[in-house]
């Protein structure tokens, strides 16, 4: 077989995997938005079976034989990039025993379902048994992956979401942040003190909020021919690039949380909808990594969505959708969008205290995976960190404490750091976009986010996974990931 | 390998198929209820890939080898039934050349899409070319299956939907119906003449109609922990037994059509939800056949739902949900539910004229598959039959004539007869349930359908495919399928 025939056969294999993944993505979306409780067991089985199938396909001897036969020099540069991604995926799958993959899928689904019941009931004890099994399996995974990659256990999990990120880099970024974050946070709180804040008065109907959200989504270029907006307990962006499913949740007494959540998910969604069309069914056509993904949601939510210029755009739409009231006065709206107030819930956190939530989770999950603590130790660690980082007491409040996130329930350890890496990258990208497009802020102030969106499309969305992350960042911004842009952005916005 | 090990491996293989089917069922439901237009191409690709996977799994040499190794005598009786169903499925898949399966899938998708354009445009000529290819491929399929089964060509297609039904039996049932149906129909129309009918006056809000529908579903025992109700252009019952998804469509100017549609789909849904739990993942745990499935929807819609006793139950709920009006007076409601009026459209037809629509389609599709007529001959045959059976003129009206149904566009020849077989079986089952439970009608009149539902559960739902259809009918009713019960039911209700 020629090298190029082998490559074509490998593409056919990954096209098949892409289609299997489509079915899994839709079943996963349905599970969180539509599925009745009683459907969970059968769904979990079906999705586990799909994981096994995909794992088998990726690790088949035939797949590895094809990989071996290809001479990269015979390929076009973009095909070489695709081959690099294929190789990594096959390697990452091959190290995992199929029984472990299946056990994780089943345990994750079960734990998530238990979590959905235990969280509202504040029932940590009820959550523990199924969660303990998830942790056990993740530790096993970490051990296996670390051995294969020749790195640390937690690092090995991190690399599932952020290929090639080494723990030392992350550590130095986070250690740096540990130095300046608490100071910046208290300065920001002090800086806002005395500014009076008028809170919006509900009730705000769900239908009105949804219409407003859809209007903003359209303004941000979301393509409703290839996606939809629904409701789920925990907002997310799922589906497939041709059919992106994003969700939010509405509160009757509040209107900005759901809206900012929609803007956030729209950032994820536009990335997905604008991945390179010609690589749609291949690994090279996928989103680059979780941190890059998050940088896109935060470019829209934080960099753009909470900027004074954007909030002024928003005001008339808010008034049209929900009626006018004193809280919707422009300067008050800006203060609301930029209010810094340490709280218990990560997803409701403001931009300045958010990294503290990440540091807390990072410390705990790393210790958990490395075997330094056990699941029973989590609440105490959680309380200590909340006290230290945000000055808040969560003792006994599992619901708004260590039971608040979905991530750990299906074993997604190593994911949390990508949120803060994404925030840093978003600030860095925004700075680069401003340099490339000097009219960018003026145009946003006139109601047109096109310069920013087009710049992101060219420099990030259309790149898919054709470049590795460091190279993507360097080409887009002229330098490596540099958290200084983020710190600068926070100082500008909150201490300016 | 021992025979019992082979059987266990075969069960594992069918469990895997069951889980794949779950993903397909959910993606199919989503496609018709939730998916935005632009998602169609990727979805079609994903679902076609799944069909290929399932076909490959069913026809794999390993699967056939396992089948050959099993000694049925070594199995328990229920395992033997399961083996019988497995064997039939593998055989039905194996006889078909993969190229023909693929060609049919492509031609069907193309023809369905042409149909969607041509039907509203009344464009028969535009529909013909793609339809001719579908017929050509279905004739090829019929030839291959007939040879494998040693039966007639149309019969071979019929057996895809109604395993084991021979054409002679169907012929004799339909020939009999041809004798009495036209007379009964004109008698029923004459019998109703003069009875004045007050039509409901809308608008009826969708939300109010949905709440009413859900209330009736609950009364009929639908389990909302394992299913949901949504909206689609063409009502259907999909999903999986653990999570049954049924749909309806609402019209603002009308309220009984959607409600009766919901009752109909609830019949399908209760059958699915109550299939035998211990055989859930195996062929023996599936619904028996299309005719038996339809008998369950019609037991609830026609036998129960349009009975005077049920309609009297319905009245206060209707008034509570939609407000009172003269049309909702009990006797008028009963007349509305039992109105006989020959019309052009099958799906809108009443219980008495519905079989005429089936006879017409049966005659045409049978002649078409046997090669006695060509697609060009369909309109003339259609017009003749409509004139003869229902006294209606459809010349030139393809839209409401031979272009009205979706079934033929993807080559589902042999499906239509199951609607009328289902209606007959429903009447026969109802008669048997009445004999078994003498209090059945009195209890329904008191507002409790439990005796009927429990009888269906025991005698039909819980049987799955453990018995073959003739045996299922015999055990439940004490005799073979006997259309006399149906004729008797129609005479009682419409000439009584
Ligand atoms: Zn995000
Ligand atoms: Zn039906």
TrEMBL record, chains A, B:
PROSITE patterns (alphabetical): PEPTIDASE_M32
Keyword presence, Zinc: yes
GO molecular function term, any single one: zinc ion binding
Leader sequence residues: none
Note on how the cofactor is bound: Binds 1 zinc ion per subunit.
Enzyme Commission identifier(s): 3.4.17.19
Residues the record marks as active site: 265 (proton donor/acceptor)
Residue positions binding Zn(2+): 264, 268, 294
CC cofactor: Zn(2+)
Keywords: Carboxypeptidase, Hydrolase, Metal-binding, Metalloprotease, Protease, Zinc
GO BP: proteolysis
Gene3D superfamilies (alphabetical): 1.10.1370.30
Keyword Methyltransferase: no
Catalytic activity: Release of a C-terminal amino acid with broad specificity, except for -Pro
Family: Belongs to the peptidase M32 family.
Its biological purpose: Broad specificity carboxypetidase that releases amino acids sequentially from the C-terminus, including neutral, aromatic, polar and basic residues.
Protein name: Metal-dependent carboxypeptidase
